[in-house]
Amino acid sequence: MRACACVTEHRQTDRQTASWEKVSTSVKGAGAVATIIALSVVYSQEKAKNNPTSPTDAPATDAPATDAPTTDTPTVTTPAPSNEPWDKYRLPKSLVPEHYNVTLWPRLTPDETGLYVFTGDSSVQFNCTEDTDLILIHSNKLNYFKHAGHLAVLTSVSPGVEAPAIRSSWLQPETQYLVLQLHSKLLKNHRYQLWTNFTGELADDLGGFYRSEYMEDGQKKVVATTQMQPTDARKAFPCFDEPAMKAFFDITLIHDRGTVALSNGREKESTNVTRDGWEVQQTVFETTEKMSTYLLAFIVSEFGYIGNMTDNVLIRIFARKPAIDAGQGDYALNKTGTILKFFEQYYSSEYPLPKSDQIALPDFNAGAMENWGLITYRETALLYDEKFSSNGNKERIATIIAHELAHMWFGNLVTLRWWNDLWLNEGFASYVEYLGAHEAEPDWNVKDLIVLNDVHRVFAVDALASSHPLSSREVDIQKPAQISELFDAISYSKGASVLRMLSDFLTEDVFKEGLKTYLKEFAFGNAVYTDLWKHLQTAVDANASAVGLKDSVEDIMNTWVLQMGFPVVTINTTTGALSQKHFLLDPDSIVTALSPYNYEWIVPIRWMMNGAKPQEPYWLRKKSATHDAMKTSQWLLANLDVVGYYRVNYDDENWNRLVDALNTDHKVIPVINRAQLVDDTFNLARAKIIPTVLALRTTEYLNKERDYMPWSSAIGNLDFFYLMFDRSEVYGPMQKYLQRKVTDLFYHYGNLTDTWKTVPDKHMDQYNQVNAISLACRTGLDECQTLVKNWFKQWMTSKKNTIHANLRSTVYCNAIAAGGAEEWQFAWEQFENATIASEAEKLRSALACTKQPWLLNRYLEYTLDPDRIRKQDATSTIVYIANNVVGQPLAWDFVRDRWSYIFSEYGGGSFSFSNLINGVTKRFSTEFELKQLKQFKEENSDVGFGSGTLAVDQSIERTIANMKWIADNKQSVLEWFHSAVNR
Ligand code: BES
Ligand code: ZN
Q1: Does 115 lie in the same domain as 13?
Q2: Is residue 54 part of a domain?
Q3: Which residue, of 369, 398, 414, is where some domain finishes?
Q4: Is residue 426 a known part of a binding site?
Q5: Is 377 inside any structural domain?
Q6: Contact partners, residue 544, CB within 8 Å, separation at least 6
Q7: Do 286 and 331 lie in a common domain?
Q8: Which residue windows does the record flag with biased composition (Low complexity) (predicted)?
Q9: In the predicted model, what is the mean pLDDT of the chain?
Q10: Quick one: 941 and 980 in the same domain?
Q11: Residue 746 CA: distances (Å) to CA of 58, 756, 779, 794, 979
Q12: Which residue segment(s) compose the domain that 882 sits in?
């Protein structure tokens, strides 16, 4: 995503001339001259009375030329008052686009100035719904050819109606518009057409129409590809770039003969043509369905593909030829049909397109993008190779395919009207991706993992006073940077969590019923999130007896959607009293945000007592209530399977009973709730609601635990202890304690796998085997360290890698941590020569594990050298380094030092800035670090933090909480570990 439109906007202003000079120089080249002539021919066909003209850049003025239609440079008048329509970020509603014809020609070789460019022409037919003499259409970083002194040509489509003449035209970089003022008005209920031709740079900036590069057989190959969401379609061609401005698109791509051109529609015809003296190929695509601009995609490559027909849908997987030849697309191809069919049933709606292409790109900012009919992925998210890919890589591929395919209906067929509702789009896909992946791999129990990956993950940020509600108001989201900020853990993971809760209390059938009618009503159109509530309510009403809700869907969901945070529900089993309270990680933090519900939620509580569970949830509607059925002297467990988005606290007696249950027969507690008990207690302790010692007691049974989820939950929480204590005297006893806990698990997997020769059968066991090795090695277990060192050494000497793909990440990391420059260098060479991205990824992360500061510093330098580390991977590599106790201060210094450069060059990346800031600061726990952080915020206030803005405040809040936590807990934790290891 374009994380920081504000900076690119600044750059745009000073690049205006510079980049134009480059383009205009290129005009002197034969090819470019030919281009202009050709474009002029097209133009003259459109409007014969104008003369072909040479392109000129629009002046970089803030003010419009009021009356300068004939001069090349419109006159600059007084500075624009900020209230003009072109100073507003939202389009006026007077013009409604209906149909575009877009031809684009990306050049995969640089021009004589070394610049990669694309040229294009585009016409858009629109309906006028209100008389107006102004046309605003989005355009960013495009240079227009002039016709009769103007940047566009306007014609009428309605018979008998003349198009008004253009009075002036200019570009408005700040709001990213091409502006046309007319001499007279466009008339209501008439149709017009706007035609432009233009050039743009095919830069390596991962946004809009951009270029990706890779090496094949010693040769550099270039791919032209797109990433439009949220606001970069306007960087490829002028368009009404808002999600509700849906239209039909006729796309044509011009490309070198022998290359493959792809777009959202099926290829209609591909012919050899001569364009501007170049012998090229022209591929015309079928008209798209009515769709939003952010879902468009245009790609030209030399890729190979595999495909099949599943129920009349053409399914294809595209990737670099060697990757396709090696079978790396096979897994994705095998699973796509299954998942697509699953969603057809889930939504009761046929897949709306005749084809579904998916393509793996060497350079891609997000993980994947749901362009309608042409989904784009980073390579690690689509390509699978049994020899190189771990079970985790495989799961990611299955879930990400499911996520993007889910969007084909939810998001693409029915689109939210404006970006403020993004959380519903992404949250929904992030929930049902688990359902789709479960269909593809029914033996994995993958649906359980939403608790670790989403619920627990987002609890950590949503427990801060600097969090924010899921829903934003439409008027508050205007600028591209504000839109980009919405792609955060709240939208994705909290969205997914509350929708899962909703689907649970409505029952899946009712949820599906509501979805079905919602999709039907708004197909090819737009909706707001309350429209979904309406349809779900209708489904509830039709099944009232089965669901038995006392409150409306809207009333319940408002409490989760309109206020930030979540409650901790306290249950007193001696009295049957329940209460709820806004859960704050730092109880002293001050919540300034007012909530319309006063931080009270309508909470569905699924619970059980000593193994027996009621069918219906208990609803906690107020701050407090009493439920006599919860009065008990046996153990009571609430929030079964963590379906509810809240934490649970109990009276001391019940806590003791639960801890006893873990210690005597942990399996009486469902596996997800064992993970919950650990996560809830550790976090309640951090919030000073229960003593830390109680949290530590939930780990005592772990030597008997074999399941993945509780172990992962424990490791995640103990990771915080490592972060806080690995530079203090707590470290020793803590290591000793954890080694004791993990040793059994380590040997368990040794036995299960014939002394590490095989891997366990089950997906979750495979994951937990990795947990066992990483924690055993981390705690210094000799056998573990010897094992991984030997494996790695064997690889170094024999040049044959026999390490199982599942174990590679942890083995590489531990071996590199234990080794020196030789190991590092070997791994670096393997990284550079890796033929599959998932192997490169494992090495890239392991390279950050070295304990040698000079290697880490050099590696940090590499992260900003795109020839060594791809731009898409830069910020995550810095975060890997910061995860290392030795690397953390180096990474922090590095990021502080280079912030403005990183910010301007690495503005993309779906979550990159927030991840980067959170990553380099998560260990912070001292006054000094807090001071540095505040200083960092201040010093860079002019540069800004883009999508990381919130992360800066969250980091400050977290640092303060950490400081207090250490002061309060260090002594008791130290004593507890001491006594636990001496027991
Ligand atoms: N629509 C997003 C991709 C995206 C993210 C575009 C940010 C622009 C800005 C896509 O559907 C998505 O959510 N991708 C996720 C993967 C998913 C499995 C969570 C991603 O890219 O990480
Ligand atoms: Zn998504």
Answers
A1: no
A2: yes
A3: 414
A4: yes
A5: yes
A6: none
A7: no
A8: 52-81
A9: 91
A10: yes
A11: 66, 10, 12, 22, 23
A12: 1-28+853-983
Span of 233-237, 480-484, 668-672, 942-946 with lowest mean pLDDT:
942-946
Q: Nearest 5 degrees, angle CA 538-CA 541-CA 545?
A: 150
Whether 457 lines ligand 1, by a CB cut-off of 6 Å, is no
Q: Which position has the token pair 């079905």?
A: 516
488 Cβ inside 6 Å of ligand 1: no
Query: What digits encode the pLDDT tens for the residues 753-801?
Result: 999 999 999 999 999 999 999 999 999 999 999 999 999 999 999 999 9
| Structural domain count, the chain | 3
Residue 69 predicted with pLDDT over 50: no
Q: What is the tens place of the pLDDT at every residue in 927-973?
A: 999 999 999 999 999 988 877 888 899 899 999 999 999 999 999 99
Distance 954 CA to ligand 2 centre (A): 24
Instruction: Decide: 531 in ligand 1 pocket, CB within 6 A.
Output: no
Among 229, 235, 486, the mutation site with the greatest number of ligand 1 atoms within 8 A of its Cβ is 229
Task: Indicate which CATH number applies to the domain containing 93.
Answer: 2.60.40.1730
Q: Is position 403 annotated in a ligand binding site?
A: yes
Q: Domain ends where: 414, 441, 475?
A: 414
CATH number at residue 977: 1.25.50.20
At 820-850, the pLDDT tens digits run 999 999 999 999 999 999 999 999 999 999 9
Q: Which of 835, 871, 863 is nearest to 847 (CA)?
A: 863
- Residues 217, 275, single domain; the answer is yes
The residues with which 210 forms a beta bridge, in sequence order, are 225
953 falls within a domain: yes
Looking from the CA of residue 407, the nearest atom of ligand 1 is: 11
Same domain, 232 and 334: no
Domain check: are 105 and 44 in the same one? Answer: yes
DSSP 247: B
Half-sphere exposure of 460 (CA within 13 A, CB side): 19
Question: Would the CB of 368 count as within 6 Å of ligand 1?
Answer: yes
Q: Does the pLDDT value for residue 489 go beyond 50? A: yes
> Which ligand lies nearest to the CA atom of residue 366 in the structure?
1
Q: Which residues pair with 251 in a beta bridge?
A: 102
438 carries a ligand binding annotation: no
Given the structure tokens 């299954």, which residue do they identify? 338
> Three-class SS of residue 101?
strand
Give the separation between CA 75 and CA 68, rounded to whole angstroms: 6
CA of 505 to the centre of ligand 1 (A): 27
